[in-house]
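Example record used in the benchmark description.
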Amino acid sequence: MIESRFEELSGPEEKAAWLQRKANWIRLSAMTMTHHAKLGHTGGDLSSSDILATLYLGRVLDVNPAEPRWAQRDRFVMSKGHCSGAFYSTLAQRGFFPLDQLKTFMGPLSMLNGHPDRNKLPGVEANTGPLGHGLPIAVGMALAARMNNQSWRVFVLVGDGELQEGSNWEAAMCAQQYQLDNLTVIVDRNGLQQGDFTESTIRMEPLADRWSSFGFAVREVNGHDHLALLDAFSSVLVEKGKPTCIIARTTKGKGVSFAENKPAWHHGVPTAEQLEIAARELGVEVQW
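Model output (structure tokens):
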């Protein structure tokens, strides 16, 4: 499904429609991978697909798939590494590796582990999966850029349930201390975590105030509105001398009726029949 380039499109409506098709393809691709592997994290894959599509296919990130370790690239850390199906599908769409590799997801000797491995897969900046690790790594990257007078930026996508890990807030204090305005934290605020709603586990709200109290410039956006996401990402840095937090309000299981806002679909594996329903609802086909 690799088609015309984003920068060749004209007008915001055309760009939004193009990104929506790409995001829905990422959704169905991730579900197809999970179906074949019989393992995965469908709900979070679906909630984060619009964010990933906008970052990579909307050309927010300055990266070069032909040279994955290009020194001046922007860095992206997928802290919620369990949502690897959406992440891998996005990287393949961006051209980091062939689409047909997606069919090997979680297979023997596959590059596509259940959690991202930078030693195996081009485009992966950090090994993630144990939650609470991605933001501290991203802070280190942003600090390294500052110390070496480099202009590249660091983005990190964290889950909202993941914010219950104290290491995130230690890292946030460090980012504020060093005024890392080259760092952008994106929270996939879908309101669910493994087994229950986040607010029934440990209350997050008022989440924007919490990030502000840690010295971050904060923006809240609809995490499924591609134009709103593009605007938010293009506006960083939001405030000079402050790291940025973008709270993306999303729906877990977005786009697939039987998965939306259902805690069971944190780990849900679609049947062949459910995969057909998802394809109809998302309006795309997956061929790789």
